[in-house]
Amino acid sequence: MAGLRCNVVTPTESVLESEASYIEFPAWDGQKGVAPGAAPFLVRLGQGRLRIEKPAGGADTFLVDGGFAQMNGGTLTILADGVTNSTAINLADAEKELANASSEGLKSGSLDARNAAEHRQRLAYARVALARSARR
User: Fold this and answer.
1) Which of 70, 86, 102 is the last residue of a domain?
2) What CA dihedral angle connects 99, 133, 18 and 53, to 10 degrees?
3) N or C: where does the chain have the smaller number of CB atoms within 10 Å of the terminal CB?
């Protein structure tokens, strides 16, 4: 069976280049999983958890904020608008961010302001969920 590589990049940096046994990422329409031998695809990313399981065990976990994922030739490339390592997320700070984003959403007037507030809420919710799962 062919191997699986994962490259995680943002517009400003290369975050990770690694071998993987399985990769789970947030597509715009829900969580997707990729195993070795996956067919080529291109999909828009949403906000949420990126988990890269290593062949020797263990995993790297990140918070992804939009972008694109492309599977081609045994390599999944995550080109994300933003990436945060899960170890850098503080649960108390994430919960405050979610509370602030939720209260801002209630005050939003224009469609653009409401869309921006909803984006902040989705990202804050994903940050809290990732921080809580890291505590288990």
Assistant:
1) 86
2) -150
3) C
Query: What's the whole-model pTM score?
Result: 0.84
Render pLDDT for 17-40 as a digit per residue (tens, 0 to 9): 999 999 999 999 999 999 999 999
Range of the domain at 59: 5-86
The four Cα atoms 25, 26, 28, 29 give a dihedral, to 10 degrees, of: 90
Residue positions counted in the chain: 136
Integer Cα distance of 1 and 115 in angstroms: 43
97 & 78 share domain: no
Q: In whole angstroms, what separates CA 59 from the centre of its chain?
A: 14
User: What is the three-class DSSP state of 28?
Assistant: coil
pLDDT per position as a tens digit, 60-112: 999 999 999 999 999 999 999 999 998 888 888 988 988 888 777 666 678 88
- In the numeric block, the tokens 């065990």 are attached to 57
Asked if 50 and 94 sit in the same domain, the reply is no
Q: Based on C-alpha coordinates, what's the Rg of the chain?
A: 16
Q: What is the pLDDT of residue 1?
A: 45
